[in-house]
Amino acid sequence: MCGRDEETRTALETLAKVDSLPLTAIGFTPKVPEILSIADLFVTKPGPGSADEAAFMGVPTLVDGTSEPLFWEAPVLTMTEGQGLGLVARSEGEIVRKATVILNRKWSIPPVPYRFPDTLRQCIHEVCPKANLPVTKEA
Asked: What pLDDT does 110 receive?
C-alpha cells in the first residue's frame, strides 16, 4: 500500500516485473485491515502506526531502515527484530534479500496478547522523555 505516492507504486510495480516478484502495489485505500488479512509480507517505513497495524494483524514486516530514523521511529526497528515481527533492511541491497527470507521462512507471529507488554513499556520509556512527555510509574 503506497497511499497517494504514485511514484513509489510505479517503482514497486516495475521492480515486481523486472525481478518476477509476486508483488501487488496498491494506492490509497480505506481497506487496510482487509488487505493485511491476506498479505504475506508488509514492507513499510519505521512509522509506529504502520508497523503496529501489521503486527496486530499478524503480518510479518520488512522495515525500511536505510536512513536515520526519527526518535519515535527508532523503537520500531528494535521491536520488529527483537519481538520476531520481521526484519529491518539497513541498505537498499538488503530489501529484496530480506523480503525473500521472510517469504521463504513462512514467518509466524505470535498472537497479540503475548507480544507487547515489555516492549511497549520500553518504547514508552525511550520515546516519551525525548518528546518531553511525562512517564507515569504505571507505564
From this structure: 65
